Amino acid sequence: MSANTSAPKHAPIEHKSEMVDWIAAGAKPKSDWRIGTEHEKIGFNLKTLKPLEYDDGAGILAMLQGLRKFGWKDVVENGYLIALKRDGASISLEPGGQFELSGAPLENIHQTCGEVSRHLREVRDIADGIGAGFLSLGFRPDTKLADVPVMPKGRYKIMRNYMPKVGTHGLEMMFRTCTVQVNLDFASEADMVKKMRVGLALQPMTTALFANSPFKDGVPNGYKSYRSRIWLDTDADRTGMLPFAFEDGFGYEQYVDYALDVPMYFVHRPTKDGGEAYLDASGKSFRDFLAGKLDILPGEKPSLQDFEDHLSTIFPEVRLKQFL
């Protein structure tokens, strides 16, 4: 699970084939395959049981700062410490402060088990010192949506404003859900197709096996997996199953066509003062962007980095980038 970075990521895209080729460049021989995992947790104050604020001396910022002692390095956005990096892995924040380990590309699941175990030991070390705890659940079981803090990441403001326009549960997804995710390499287009189809077919079984979100606002919600209920009405344009993946002829190009028709969230650009800006492109067309007709950036065409950013805002049950 590793990206090919040889392509010029910031040159304007002139043809759809460049995006297809970029995805295809992720294919690699089996000897180079890696596995990566992502692990999200819900943080809370042990005394009050309330969510961890970003910066109150004993919250998310204190967690990030404390983890520095284990060799993690800062990732800063517009003056805010929002993530950490170490040896190909990162710790980042979901919108409601869900604490996420994005693991390094590793050779096997035994190594990923060791990585997650080490991460949890480090998190507990810092959490114990500030009076924090963490839950590995699919949905925050007690805190009302209005009481969940908002993390200081630019793109989350855009998403927060857009979500209620396209579904009834998008804000619940952003602020109260957690997940575990696996990232896998593929050898070829045919191998990608097979893994995509198997992954999609296994998703309902996985949901049933690991259902662990039966509470909402402190009471039973009537579901084994309320997290899955939320995803059924978050944003139909970018979530759910992908029936076209089972059709004859499915491959890289068909996935690119699907992605191009998913409405955008943002365009990420540096600012003159060295900061970062997320331009609100919510609901706009990446195809218009490709044609130089995006109204917020008239005449400008996207780069492969813009395309990769766009792919990261698409959330089907299995998604394709330069890995699955």
Question: What does this protein look like?
Answer:
The protein is α+β, with helices and mostly antiparallel strands. 33% of the residues lie in helices and 18% in strands. The chain has ten helices and 13 strands. The strands form four sheets. Strands 1, 2, 3, 4, 5, 6 and 7 form a seven-stranded antiparallel beta sheet that branches. It has a two-stranded antiparallel sheet with strand order 8-9. A two-stranded parallel ribbon has the order 10-13. The longest helix is centred in the middle third of the chain and has 22 residues, at 109-130.
Average pLDDT reading: 96
Q: How many beta-strand runs?
A: 13
How would a crystallographer describe the biggest sheet? 7 strands, antiparallel
Q: Which residue ranges are poorly predicted, with pLDDT under 50 across at least 5 consecutive positions?
A: none
| Total count of helical runs of at least 4 residues | 10
Assign the structural class, choosing from mainly alpha, mainly beta, alpha/beta, alpha+beta, or little secondary structure: alpha+beta
The topology string of helices and strands comes to HEHEEEEHEHHEHEEHEHEEHHE
